[in-house]
Amino acid sequence: MTTPTTPTTPTTPATAAAPPAGLTEAVLDRAAGHRLLDELQDRPTREATLPGLERIAPGFPDWIVTSLFGGTYQRPGLDLRDRQLLNLATLGTLGGVDPQLTGHIRSSLRVGLTREQIVEVFVHLAPYIGTPKALAALRVVAATFQALDEQDEAAR
Amino acid sequence: MTTPTTPTTPTTPATAAAPPAGLTEAVLDRAAGHRLLDELQDRPTREATLPGLERIAPGFPDWIVTSLFGGTYQRPGLDLRDRQLLNLATLGTLGGVDPQLTGHIRSSLRVGLTREQIVEVFVHLAPYIGTPKALAALRVVAATFQALDEQDEAAR
Amino acid sequence: MTTPTTPTTPTTPATAAAPPAGLTEAVLDRAAGHRLLDELQDRPTREATLPGLERIAPGFPDWIVTSLFGGTYQRPGLDLRDRQLLNLATLGTLGGVDPQLTGHIRSSLRVGLTREQIVEVFVHLAPYIGTPKALAALRVVAATFQALDEQDEAAR
Amino acid sequence: MTTPTTPTTPTTPATAAAPPAGLTEAVLDRAAGHRLLDELQDRPTREATLPGLERIAPGFPDWIVTSLFGGTYQRPGLDLRDRQLLNLATLGTLGGVDPQLTGHIRSSLRVGLTREQIVEVFVHLAPYIGTPKALAALRVVAATFQALDEQDEAAR
Amino acid sequence: MTTPTTPTTPTTPATAAAPPAGLTEAVLDRAAGHRLLDELQDRPTREATLPGLERIAPGFPDWIVTSLFGGTYQRPGLDLRDRQLLNLATLGTLGGVDPQLTGHIRSSLRVGLTREQIVEVFVHLAPYIGTPKALAALRVVAATFQALDEQDEAAR
Amino acid sequence: MTTPTTPTTPTTPATAAAPPAGLTEAVLDRAAGHRLLDELQDRPTREATLPGLERIAPGFPDWIVTSLFGGTYQRPGLDLRDRQLLNLATLGTLGGVDPQLTGHIRSSLRVGLTREQIVEVFVHLAPYIGTPKALAALRVVAATFQALDEQDEAAR
């Protein structure tokens, strides 16, 4: 048999229902997530992602913002600069996700990483992910820096 | 500068705050997630995962249950059998995640997939993921079926 | 030493020679494979793949059709809708294979998957393959749906 | 609707039906495939794979032998030593497929690659796949060489 | 024709020959590399890797130490804590490289990352690499922490 | 604490300092590396890579040339044709690194591989890496061959 999963209308809000005994409740803070996203992403990145995603998959953008930026990002231990270093490493290792890498390069600059440091991330990783993937990531880095310079030019 | 992300004490619960204009609110139903997990996972699988994970990463098990089983799994369009087919394909394609694959093979049987169908998933995928990864997945399938048979034996 | 593998002129056709004792003979039905491909692929997809592939690698298109569509696809247990769900999951997990994903999105619609279901495949998989790869797949989905709409427009 | 794919009883054998106009017929020679496998694999490797695979997925071993060793391996241009170099590179790049890598290391020795050359394959690839995957492959290489030495010891 | 690459006896040491016009000379400092490795790796990790690797691939351990720890690690911009965050992210994303991940978890503790932060690395990455790979990495983290505790016990 | 890695000004050149007892010294020959690169890469490939890379990451191109072409490529056992077969297999297996694959296809022709053999590399690998990645690689092969033909045309 195959049970259809009709969306359960949440009679109890996520943060109201307690998790089973022995499990710590996870933070899932929609408002904090959207605030953090505004801090991390510049307008071009935000506009290049959420609206188009909402059109094709309604509710998925809010899931991403609440579960990630309002969830895992809200946990203690790592600051935003640390988290962006991790994101850059992971996206460069995955490969083939250039638009996401572009957005995270822009966000990395916003949380205090310098252009030099962003370049060094992929030079450092070259012996770990292989030079082909490192070169692919550096191509995206160079293109993103150039786009930012042209943006600044246009803003003058 | 690097902004420390001290966990925001959620003054407003996730489902209370409204997403920004233009975004549909995502379902994040903790109670429904834990109910669904109980339906999907047998006791051995559940006990092999959540408690140990809670010990090392408090709050992460509840995040997984609420965001996945209480979140993406609650969306309409696909039933649980469809979702398990997708999970099996993805885990076999990723490779190197045998414990997760084992758990999802067990869950697949619970939502109506037959042993033959689970085997055919990886025979079908062989030309898409390559025979080496297909053979690796089938090795896990065979081991899981054997463990289930021994479990049944013991239960007699 | 290195043994050259000059192509063996098949004195005995594939399905005539019996496999060694203990092995079940595999179905490798060229005619059935080409019939199934005609059912699965629309003209644009077919014309975008086989002829160009034949020019650069003569015999490889027929190998794909006979071994896959006339081979693994002919095995019992899974229907074509199941197989397309598996293909979508695998291509989204692999990443970097957009033309193949585009073709399989078109084929998925032909075997009964709805546009909504194809979108939900990648929303469901997001927590398993990671949001970057899920967003990359959804970008291909959106582009494919738009191309189909323009095709329909043109056909009017 | 979902079309069930009941296995088509091949009224016409694979090599009898002609491919559509414009496509070259692929070689799919079952007998040649099984002969080649006997040449490539030593008894331990063969016995570690096919029988167990036949038990769980009847017909899949014969599909592998006929489509690969009786198919793609029968094409001209590359000799068996070339093909084993490619297999070693691919299995080391994929990672997480140690049993397959072990079998192909054994086969590589049978087609004329030396132990030193097999080691150098992964030293050469280290900067391309990253040192972590290269070290993982070399661990399998060392274990396989040791197993072969113990085998020889026992054979004395 | 195939040009054999007989190892060139370096008439000029690496750092003596100047790179072509327009290229900056890379730092490749063997002594600094071995010093840094002593700082990064504890004895168990070092002994688990280099000697065995030297036996099977003479010269490869020194290549790794000089090119990585004496090369890319010597470049400015990122400190050792940053580099370990990148290494953890990459190894968790690659998957299937548990011994390397174990060594880098131990090194991460030596450069100032806390156990909590190492755990948070993989909780943070879960939505980017997928929960299956995050759970696989956390399993290695838990095993490494336990081994370190037992090591401390034994040392008492 | 986080130790800053200020670039160690190499008081002793790489090939002067001896590795620790028990480790064989690796060849790292800058001059040989740049000579080999000139042999392997045609002008278009070289100009498409190193200068742009030097601009964004000064010193990284020389690191690649000295550590790879002056390092791992200088080890005995495999000739350049063997090494290119390995490179093609690895790049096709990684996927998503088209510019690197393009360069290595051009280099493969320079060390004696024929166009037919380069095509067969990916036909052979199809059952190992999956047909989607094989088709993606063959698309790059076809585009590279066409670019070479147009180059020859223009040179007339």
UniProtKB/TrEMBL annotation, chains A, B, C, D, E, F:
Residues 65-142 form the Carboxymuconolactone decarboxylase-like domain. InterPro entries: 4CMD/NDH-1_regulator, AhpD-like, CMD-like. It comes from the Bacteria. It holds the Pfam family CMD. Residues 1-20 are annotated as: Disordered. This is Carboxymuconolactone decarboxylase family protein. It comes from Kitasatospora nipponensis.
